[in-house]
Each structure stands twice: as C-alpha cells, then as structure tokens.
Design a protein that fits this description.
The protein is mainly α. The chain contains five helices and four strands; from the N terminus they run ααααββαββ. A hairpin with a 6-residue loop joins strand 3 and strand 4. Helix 1 packs antiparallel against helix 3 and helix 2 runs antiparallel to helix 3. The protein starts with a helix and ends with a strand.
C-alpha cells in the first residue's frame, strides 16, 4: 500500500489522539473518588445495619420495660389495698397479721421489681446513646459521599471536556487522510490493544518497543517514502522520519 508522507504522519497524529482518549477514559474509570465512594458507602451501610439492629433492640427492651412497669404497678396496687385494709382495722387480728406479713413480702418484691425496672431503664438509655451516635456517624458518612460525588462529577466533566477537544481534533485530522490507510489503521488498532501506528525511532518500533535487525532496517530504507511500512513484530504501521 502507498500513502503520502503527510497522510502517514497524520495517521500517527490520530494514534496520539486515540491514546490520549484511552488514557482519559481509563482515568475516568479509575478515579480515586469512585473507590472512596464504594468504600464509604460500605461503611455507611454497615452503620445503617447497626442502627437498625439497635432500633430493633430498643423496641424489644421497651416492651420488657413496659412489662416491668406493669409488674411494679400491680405490686403497688396490692400494697395500697393492704395498707388501706390495715388502716381501717377491718378484720380479725389474724387477718390483720396476715395482711401485715403480706405487706412485708410485697415491699421486698416491689424493691426487686423496681431494681429490675431501673436496670432496664439504664439499658434503654445506653441504647438511645448508641442509636444517636450511629445516626450521627451515618449522617457524617452521607456528607462525605455527597462531597465525593461532587468531586467525581467535576473530574468527569473536566475529562469529558478534554475528550471533546481530542475528538474534535481527531475528526478534523481524519478528514484529510486517505480512506485506505485510515481503514488499515483502524483495523490494526482494533486487533492490537489500541495500537495501529507507531514511529520508527532509529532502529526501534515505538509500538512494541522492539529493536529491528540490520537487514530489515536496510529493506525499509530502500523503500520509497510513500510506501506504507509495517512492523514485523506488532504489525502496526511504521511512520518513518519522526
């Protein structure tokens, strides 16, 4: 295949545009903010799960507290009833003695139940503090994620602007290049990890970075300038005189 020196050099320019675009797209896909967002979101989800578990625990403990309060209330009602009976003096001496004894038992039971009630209330306060702390942490992580998303969007916008400029320059360059060599470049690039053309610098192909032997270099040197040369190793289009 033959192509003008100008077209060959333009193909190398197109290769540079394509490599720049690939670099920018890779940068967009590997923004540090993306990793940070993922990591922070996992942390936030873990904190959320802990909060939900604490809220569930709170519901269970509050039911336990309600039962304890009910038990105390029942004891208080019985104590009030017995105290009223004693104060009235109604009943035989034996019955009054039994009532007095029952009051002592009920008083001890009341003390036990109120101790249990107090312990449950302290547990409730502890869970409340834990929930408050988890909610604060969850909110803080939400703010971090929001900030990371802003940074990500700004970075992507800047990359998109660069890509648009490169694509514009590439389009302008391709319009002046012969269709045949452009088609060859695109075909090679698609099958060679994005490398379709490279400069021949001295005795080295900059596409695969391998050194050519003296015989191959002599053969290339004997070709006309408009002859399209390919690297024997990576098969990309070699651009001479760069």
């Amino acid at each position: 295949m033959k192509a003008s020196v100008s077209d060959q050099r333009s193909v190398l320019d197109i290769q540079k545009f394509d490599l720049q675009s690939a670099t920018l797209r890779n940068r967009a896909a590997t923004l540090p903010e993306l990793v940070e967002i993922t990591t922070t979101t996992i942390k936030q989800n873990n904190v959320r799960d802990l909060r939900i578990a604490a809220e569930t625990e709170m519901s269970d403990v509050k039911r336990e507290l309600a039962r304890a309060e009910g038990d105390v209330e029942q004891i208080v009602t019985r104590i009030t009833r017995d105290e009223t009976r004693l104060a009235s003096g109604t009943g035989s001496a034996k019955e009054l003695e039994q009532t007095q004894h029952e009051l002592g038992t009920l008083g001890a039971r009341r003390a036990e139940l109120e101790e249990i009630e107090l312990e449950i209330m302290m547990t409730v306060d502890g869970i409340k503090d834990r929930i408050t702390s988890l909610v604060d942490e969850e909110n803080q992580l939400s703010l971090v994620i929001a900030e990371l998303n802003i940074r990500k969007e700004n970075a992507l916008a800047a990359i998109h602007t660069e890509l648009e400029g490169i694509e514009s320059d590439r389009k302008a360059t391709t319009q002046s290049v012969g269709a045949e060599i452009l088609a060859l470049y695109e075909k090679i690039r698609e099958s060679s990890n994005g490398i379709g053309a490279a400069a021949l610098a001295g005795n080295q192909c900059k596409g695969c970075n391998l050194t050519m032997n003296t015989i191959e270099l002599a053969r290339i040197a004997g070709l006309s300038e408009d002859e399209v040369v390919r690297c024997e190793e990576c098969r990309c289009i070699l651009i001479r005189g760069n």
